[in-house]
């Protein structure tokens, strides 16, 4: 089963994709996570991606399409995958369609997790993640018992460099200009559904599972 999870920054794509990956036994392919790993490692891709990511802009289509084209040929993608954060431009969506067609694959579900812009700014600027196990926290809705430490594993809580208000507003504006048209690209296709990302996380997860079956 091949799934595309869409939604503005902070809608909860990453968290939901992580849980869906466990439930359905297919990997979560997050271009954001892959690019952050490349930046951290200082690889050639990372060096090219760094400035765009820090400003909240998009990394070039060429780079992200290359990353995904390589990634979906790996063995763990044989039964399918969940794309999280890709495609983010119409050009990426077109490249993905070609990539899949040439391998006789198709997208089974495109799901848009919708959310309200002001709520997203508050959600994103308050969030932190455990560096060790990936558990997510929030300054107002989900505080850790001990400040700065993960309740589950004691790991250190970190914030993303691009989760400050100015960059978030830019990411949202980039989303409206460049990524919202991707929804229109898929909407007529019969595989498209939307779920309300303003609901509680477990409700959003249940709605996603009802669609995926
Ligand atoms: P969010 O959805 O919260 O903005 P991501 O982790 O998906 O965060 O992405 C972080 C950053 O990585 C983006 O702001 C962008 O710079 C870059 N990025 C991720 N995916 C893509 C993509 N498909 N195309 C271009 N840039 C991307
Ligand atoms: Zn942890």
Explain what the structure shows.
The structure is a single chain. The mean pLDDT is 95. The termini are close together. The protein has a single domain (2-115, 176-212), classed as P-loop containing nucleotide triphosphate hydrolases (Rossmann fold), CATH 3.40.50.300. Helix 2 (31-41) packs across helix 3 and helix 6 (117-125) crosses helix 7. The protein has a five-stranded parallel sheet, sandwiched between helices. The radius of gyration is 17 Å and the shape is globular. The protein has helices spanning 13-24, 31-41, 44-55, 61-71, 90-102, 117-125, 165-187, 201-212; strands at residues 2-6, 28-30, 81-84, 109-114, 127-130, 136-138, 157-158, 192-196. It has 213 residues and is an alpha/beta fold. The chain contains eight helices and eight strands; from the N terminus they run βαβαααβαβαβββαβα. It binds adenosine-5'-diphosphate (ADP) and zinc ion.
What's the helix and strand layout?
Elements (H helix, E strand, L loop, with lengths): L1 E5 L6 H12 L3 E3 H11 L2 H12 L5 H11 L9 E4 L5 H13 L6 E6 L2 H9 L1 E4 L5 E3 L18 E2 L6 H23 L4 E5 L4 H12 L1
Parallel strand pairs: 1-3, 1-4, 2-3, 4-8
Antiparallel strand pairs: 5-6, 5-7
Helix pairs in contact: 2-3, 4-5, 6-7
The structure holds adenosine-5'-diphosphate and zinc ion.
The secondary-structure class comes to alpha/beta
Separation, N- and C-terminal Cα atoms: 11 Å
* H/I helix tally: 8
Portion of residues within helices? 40-55%
What is the CATH class designation?
Alpha Beta
Strand order of the largest sheet: 2-3-1-4-8
The CATH homologous superfamily is named P-loop containing nucleotide triphosphate hydrolases
The total strand number stands at 8
Number of domains: 1
Low-confidence stretches: none
H-E string:
EHEHHHEHEHEEEHEH
Main beta sheet strand tally, sense and closure: 5 strands, parallel
CATH architecture field: 3-Layer(aba) Sandwich
